[in-house]
Amino acid sequence: MKSIMKFVLGIVVVGMLLAGAWLAYGSLFAAPQAEPTSDVFIINRNQDGSVIADKLQSQGFVRSGFAFASILSAKGKLSAIAPGGYHLSKDMDVWQVAEKLITGNPDLKWVTIPEGWRKEQIGELLAKTFNWSGDDLKKWDTVYTKMRSEYLEGTYFPDTYLIPIDESGLDMANRMTRRFDEQFAPYVGGFAAQNIQWTTGLKLASLIQREAAGNGDMPLIAGILWNRLNRGMKLEIDATVQYARGKADAGWWAPITSDDIKIIDSPYNTYEYKGLPPTPIDSPGLAAIDATLHPAETDCLYYLHDANRQIHCAVTYEDHLANIETYLRHPQK
Fold this sequence. Notes:
Blueprint: H1 2-28, E1 39-43, H2 49-58, H3 65-75, E2 84-88, H4 94-102, E3 108-112, H5 119-130, H6 134-142, E4 160-164, H7 169-193, H8 198-211, H9 218-230, H10 238-245, H11 258-263, H12 286-293, E5 302-305, E6 311-314, H13 317-329
Antiparallel strand pairs: 1-2, 3-4, 5-6
């Protein structure tokens, strides 16, 4: 009789242990809900596994962030999740979620467009990120970014985007120009109030973006360039010649030579032609756009940067030559 009691008691204990294990599994590893959903889980850059685990739990994608982190740790993947957006469903258990995230293949990818890049540079970055073919890149350069005359250049707004991996190049171009429209809208009225066409303002902002050593230089450079334009002087901007020349062995913005200035017959060559170039030469940031609208008051017509990227301006060409001698040819130690 005692042996039967022990046997029954053993079965009860095992049953309780199994039930407890099942409950523990359900509370830690099971799917948060039975019904499927269609959600995007976003992982920012430089987020480690523990942060991602907490975020998954707080957004209801897993029951336990601890369980998710434990799986990653066991697989040696705690810091190996690629940033981006992932399509998840809340009927996925924690194992399925972990498997989805550690594949390294996000459904949406982060792309950061730097300020001062021309559209071909942007196209190269997109091609690398989304594995475009040569034909895809060619269409970006010659079709998708040439569909509207005022959006040929300068309007592919420098920002960080989260883009679906299957989005077309045309949709990416439209995404960036929509962002430009949103960000540029507050400045349109200011340009109109000063009787400046927004396209003119954007052209000048693109020059300022390439010429400045930092945002602090931009209002002064804007004031100097406006002074040159108002006096009918040639702008003589190296970056416009770089734009006309195109890609060199050292990149899109490699330094120009005296021969480049002489032989490149282009309306973008501001050493040869007065006024602004036909289009912007890059996509400027908001600081350059703001500087165009709010230039520093200055009598200077010339400027240069020394080896420390400090700007020095001059009112006369003779003073500019003296600055060249002082800061470039014989800089003080």
